[in-house]
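Final report, closing paragraph on structural work. Over the funding period we assembled a curated collection of sequence-structure pairs, and we close with a single example.
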Amino acid sequence: TKIVGVQPHVVLEGVGGIQNVEEVKQLIESLGFSEIQSIAPFVQGQGIIRSARNAAGVVIKGVDPAREPMDLFKKHLKFGTLDLEDVVVASEAGQTKQIGRVLLGEELAHRLHVSLGDMVSIISPAFDEEDPAKSIRNAKTGHFAVSGIFRLGMNDFDTGLALVHLNQAKGLYQLGDRVTGVSVRLSDPELADQIRSSIQGRF
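Its predicted structure, as stored:
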């Protein structure tokens, strides 16, 4: 049941992302299924997370905590909080700057040798097959403070998942006001195919 808790029952993705999230949400709601529990936009992509002592390739998932059910992560939170709101920190020059917060799986935190409050960098690759050097130049780096560490008991997630706020992920992947997709969770997973086929090709 854990895997179902992590993965939504229906995932809607558009080529190049989804721009009209509210329209998609209204379309799903208009189907009239009382079993729909949540409709949440997300951003997901590959990235590299780097600490002062190590680096690892991970899946970065940007979520909107106001819409994304976080119950499973709350249940399996080992340290810290689920707070993904930006935090203001002092820079070396005495200035203040706003940085994101990140939730990490326990094994990933061990691999990076980080604990709560430590800083990590997340690098999102900008792939350009014709010009690899351009990819490196266009790669985006964001700085994050570790706010929570979870252990779901599933290797893929505990070693390779980093959760950040949706707005931070949009910036990392240079999406503007687009998102990767919209996830739907249901009280009855058996309805997933019916909902998927009802929406297919309508946005």
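The chain has eight helices and ten strands. The beta strands are 10-18, 36-50, 55-63, 77-80, 87-90, 96-105, 119-124, 140-150, 161-165, 179-186. We thank the funder for supporting this effort.
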